[in-house]
Backbone:
């Protein structure tokens, strides 16, 4: 197999379920590829560049086939669908959201997706400046949401996960803090997909209201 950054990134992503991001090393990636670690450094100089390549692979997989909104499709629904694609791509890997957080993803598919998003917003009546603020807000919400989502089911907890419903129910004294107990139980028992969708709709409604208020 000919080594390049893409092949190395795929091997590293394949190791995440086993070792997690903290346990990922260049040596382990090299072993998975049946090469010596120095062979990797011709293609990725260090772990930082490896993470960038991994993030690029995750993002590219998320946006394959993304097209402009269909006729009559609301811009909000299009953006929510796009964010959902990215969320599912990150969830495909243990610590997938941490891989994307703070990484540099330079790829034609990234720029094409950003361009489509900006054009979609401009077609919906946003100014250039308004449209340019939306993409990072949605991206940061999506990555942050999935970091929290994956942390709750972290493999490091094994059978002692404090986020299990029965443990959460015992964590808060419902007699002293009835509202907090109801909130905590509700959060961790709720449909996570619905939570993600609701949060995005709140954000987009706020963006629309702010835009309307500034015009």
Residues:
């Amino acid at each position: 197999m000919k080594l390049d950054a893409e092949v190395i990134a795929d091997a590293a992503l394949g190791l995440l379920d086993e070792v997690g991001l903290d346990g990922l090393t260049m040596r382990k990636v090299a072993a998975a590829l049946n090469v010596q670690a120095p062979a990797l450094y011709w293609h990725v100089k260090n772990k930082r560049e490896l993470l960038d390549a991994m993030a690029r692979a995750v993002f590219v997989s998320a946006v394959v086939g993304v097209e402009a909104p269909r006729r009559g499709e609301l811009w909000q629904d299009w953006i929510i669908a796009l964010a959902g694609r990215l969320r599912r791509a990150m969830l495909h890997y243990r610590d997938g959201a941490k891989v994307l957080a703070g990484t540099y993803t330079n790829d034609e598919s990234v720029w094409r997706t950003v361009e489509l998003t900006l054009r979609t917003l401009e077609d919906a009546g946003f100014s250039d400046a308004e449209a340019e603020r939306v993409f990072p807000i949605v991206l940061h919400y999506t990555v942050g949401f999935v970091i929290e989502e994956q942390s709750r089911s972290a493999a490091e907890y094994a059978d002692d996960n404090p986020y299990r419903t029965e443990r959460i129910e015992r964590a808060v004294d419902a007699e002293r803090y009835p509202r907090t107990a109801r909130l905590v139980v509700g959060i961790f028992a709720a449909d996570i997909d619905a939570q993600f969708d609701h949060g995005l709709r709140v954000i987009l409604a706020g963006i629309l209201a702010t835009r309307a208020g500034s015009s």
In short: The mean pLDDT is 90. The CA atoms of residues 1 and 33 lie 9 Å apart.
